[in-house]
Design brief:
This protein has 471 residues and is an alpha/beta fold. It has helices spanning 8-11, 16-23, 31-34, 60-72, 90-93, 106-112, 117-137, 156-162, 171-177, 198-212, 280-286, 335-348, 393-408, 419-422, 433-449, 457-464; strands at residues 27-28, 47-56, 78-81, 97-99, 149-153, 168-169, 185-189, 193-195, 215-217, 222-226, 233-237, 240-249, 266-275, 293-296, 302-306, 312-321, 357-367, 374-378, 383-387. It has 16 helices and 19 strands. 48% of the residues are buried.
Length: 471
């Protein structure tokens, strides 16, 4: 096994004082949520009512389900229930990468669904095309930019991973796109990813939904389901209830309302920094004229992008799981992670020395053991659910909404016939095994990054069991 050595970000680390200066002006707040402009609000549910479809969850998955349900059947009564406010959780605080992949990348997809991967790839591309069409046709103002993704090698062993790509860029070519002394090679896939303003997308979907007749209720916590053998399913809330023929559950990272799926996901915290707007001179020093999404190829990877006002979002690397599957606001402030992110940013872009960060925040990702969404039905086909998007839900939630609506309607479609849709991934073990396994995996991935990508016996065992992943 190769000897451990510092990563490129560590070898080019700035002085601690520079990190402190860059972080000093930052506030613990979500830039996207602050940048949505005037925000509509929706009343809490009070009393009992009925519906044709009840949607639980006001993030992307629930909002797409409500919108697409009304487009399929404009006369249906659709009620959406959200415990907090629309888009406040992962949908309002992610990086805004809207990818075509439904499988968290080709390698993960081919390893898990080899016989149907080509179909999944085609359906994912069609879903992104449909997403773009919906943005245009429905007038969704979410700063949609289909600029693709630039994947970069920051270690010599990663260059070989890119050489067979039809989009390969050598060191000079990649630095003409985005200039960093750490970038040794790259691959620019131009059509399989778009960038969006995450919070504006959520808020605009809610606006479109209400325009179509969806009834949205915020600050309405669902406390349980009652599904008798026959008849409507009753969704109980803190302020009333909704009885409906069909229910779609889109609670994702939050505890499932169905006991059978409570071990299917774990919340993993992801951390993000946002810079102040770059000056024209600063932006010219970096390049980035094509405004692609950016990601490196490490197991513990970074992702970055430009905003409409020329800030740089810089996130990733640390992925933190807290024992007990808890989702808590206190986990969102993690000084050691923000310092590490800031140091890595300054190592990647030394020409931006003196640039400061305005915002720092975090959010919980609903991670599944297959690192892509899973789907299911309950209550004799009257309740559908999807979860486990593992950080790639901006585009995939729209596909999941179509799957849920197909299945709730009793339709057999190309989507519902997928093995990926019909089969569930293995659950995570209960505590303390979950915490031990997740943290050992994270330690092993970090070790591989420090040893030229060489995976240890634990990671190789996960790979052999179909539970491995490289990022």
């Amino acid at each position: 096994m190769p000897a451990a050595r510092p990563t490129a970000y560590e070898r080019h680390a700035p002085a601690p004082a520079a990190v402190d200066a860059a972080l000093a002006p930052s506030r613990h707040a979500v830039f996207w949520l602050e940048d949505t402009g005037e925000v509509a609000s929706y009343p809490a549910l009070v009393g009992s009512t009925g519906a044709d479809l009840t949607v639980v969850g006001g993030g992307y998955c629930g909002l797409w389900t409500a919108v697409l349900a009304k487009r399929r059947n404009p006369g249906a009564r659709v009620v959406l229930l959200e415990a907090n406010t629309v888009g406040w959780a992962a949908s309002g605080r992610n990086g805004g990468f809207c990818e075509a992949s439904l499988t968290h990348g080709e390698e993960n997809g081919r390893s898990r669904w080899p016989e149907e991967y080509d179909v999944l790839e085609r359906l994912g591309a069609a879903n992104l095309d449909a997403f773009e069409s919906d943005v245009r046709e429905l007038g969704i103002e979410c700063q949609f930019e289909r600029t693709g993704t630039l994947s970069v090698a920051v270690e010599h062993h990663q260059v070989g991973w890119l050489r067979d790509s039809p989009h390969f860029l050598d060191a000079d070519a990649v630095r003409r796109e985005i200039d960093s002394p750490l970038f040794l090679a790259g691959a620019w896939s131009r059509d399989d990813c778009a960038l969006v303003h995450p919070a504006r997308l959520a808020r605009e979907l809610a606006r479109v939904a209400t325009g179509l007749g969806v009834e949205i209720h915020e600050h309405t916590t669902v406390t349980g389901l009652a599904a008798p053998t026959r008849g409507p399913v009753t969704v109980r809330t803190n302020g009333g209830s909704v009885a409906s023929d069909r229910v779609a559950l889109a609670t994702n990272v939050f505890p499932s309302l169905l006991r059978r799926t409570r071990l299917m996901t774990v919340p993993v915290y992801d951390y993000v920094l946002m810079t102040e707007p770059l000056t024209g001179e600063q932006l010219a020093s970096v390049g980035w004229s094509h405004r692609q999404g950016l990601g490196d190829l490490a197991n513990q990877f970074h992702y970055a992008r430009l905003t409409a006002d020329h800030r740089i979002l810089w996130g990733g690397y640390d992925a933190i799981y807290h024992r007990g599957r808890r989702v808590r606001a206190s986990y969102e402030e993690r000084p050691e992670t923000f310092r590490r992110l800031a140091a890595h940013f300054l190592a990647a872009f030394p020409q931006l020395a003196g640039l400061t960060f305005s915002h720092r925040w975090a959010g919980a990702i609903d991670t599944s053991t297959q690192f892509a969404a899973f789907h299911g039905l309950a209550a004799r086909g009257r309740v559908a659910y999807a979860a486990g998007f593992t950080g790639l839900g901006v585009g995939a939630t729209r596909f999941a909404a179509e799957v849920m609506l197909d299945r709730l309607s009793g339709l057999t479609t190309e989507r519902t016939r997928l093995d990926m849709v019909r089969r569930k991934p293995p659950p995570f073990p209960p505590e303390p095994l979950a915490s031990a396994g997740i943290n050992l995996t994270r330690w092993s991935l970090d070790r591989a990054d420090h040893r030229a990508g060489e995976r240890n016996l634990f990671l190789k065992a996960l790979d052999a069991a179909g539970l491995g992943f490289d990022s």
